[in-house]
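I have been asked to look over a protein record a colleague put together. The record follows directly below this note.
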Amino acid sequence: MIATVLASCLSLLPSVERGFRPALSGPESTLDDDAGRYRLHYTVVGDDAVPPDDVDGDGVPDFASRAINALSEADARYAAEGWRTPGPDNGDGESDAVDVYVRDITAFGFAYADVGPDGPTCWMELDPGIESVAPLGIESVAVHELHHCVQYRYTVTSHPWVYEATATWEQYRLHTDDTLQAALDVLWNQRLRGADQPMDTTGGRFEYAGFAVMKWWTEFGGADEDRLVALWEALEAEPDWALALDAASEDAWGLSLVEALHHHATWNRFACSRDDGAHYDDSVHPCTFPATSVNVEELAAPAFSLAAPAGGMLSVYGDLPAGGDDRPVELDCSFDGEGELGIVAVDRDGVAGEEAHGPAGEPLRLSGAVDPDGVFAVVLTSRDEAAATLQCGVERVEAVVEPGPEPGGCSCSSGAGNPAALWLLILLATGPCRTSRRCAAC
């Protein structure tokens, strides 16, 4: 039941004709927000009836009051974040407000793009049964659907996973309670355990779990909320989500999309139960499900292989034990596809140290001494539609002594890898560390 609160949906190509609005099962009442931007249509009779509770005694069902207040508050929040505001309705709901109909539907919510000669408008539906799922279920689903209306101001032709991932990211930023946190943990688990599925997989709520991509997008290289809006501006200019995100990634970090998503995959190695305090910000969308982590294959020297499934834009992981030896390693690999490879020195406490990244198939080398009781985390991100296999030889090499950080400061270094990745590590090193355990990954 917890996870079903997430089953709110969008309709980019509505199955209803333009101008259609649903009829309710009983006499219709309406409730507008103070600014007249949103109008809720509801009834207290029949299958579509909202719960009758009216705790404040104002004559309006609490469901209606909570839904309209949530929409008004989210409207202001989204505007403050720099998002475009949903355009006025075309009048089909007998006003210029964005119309929201409460009725018995097959999900907890829908948002419809109504595309006319003056651009897209939007109307929504909410199910009256939301309230029974979570204490803040009404608010949570309402603001999720509203963000779809925001998204339609940019494009109505992109991929469903981007719409749902972004709306879910915003949904859980605005409203959280114990039940919703449990639902969020379900999504964390789906996305991390499904890292070897293509990025744009849909079904089974995997697209909603893409909120983790949007979380990473705003936090990598230093938190910047404007990056998400810039991503949607890129989607407006380019319908193909991969091409759009590629352009947005180049603008944000000087990295191609596969390079950027490889860093996202590396961060996921240290998410949730493997959190080392140096990657995701736990104050936003924390992961509290202790068993959640990516699937890691145990590797063995002096040679190993990793198999990347078909589908493209996916990642696989392996851990190579340091084996009581503090010398770093060099990987000499071949890859019969196209992608990015990374290796991270991880100490016995699970904290990331030195990293090296580069195109899969090119040598990678760490330079500094490692924890002999730690592991080398290997992350492969494949962009190929076909299945591909990484074959690597492992050689232990002598450590290079690097100057230590200034007292009270932190530094990061990189071995072999592409220039963009090296530049990014330098960038990250200039920011504050978010861990007091050690300056492992700034």
In short: Residues 1-7, 12-16, 407-442 have pLDDT under 50 and may be disordered. The longest strand covers residues 388-396. Residues 2-164 form a domain with the Glutaredoxin fold (CATH 3.40.30).
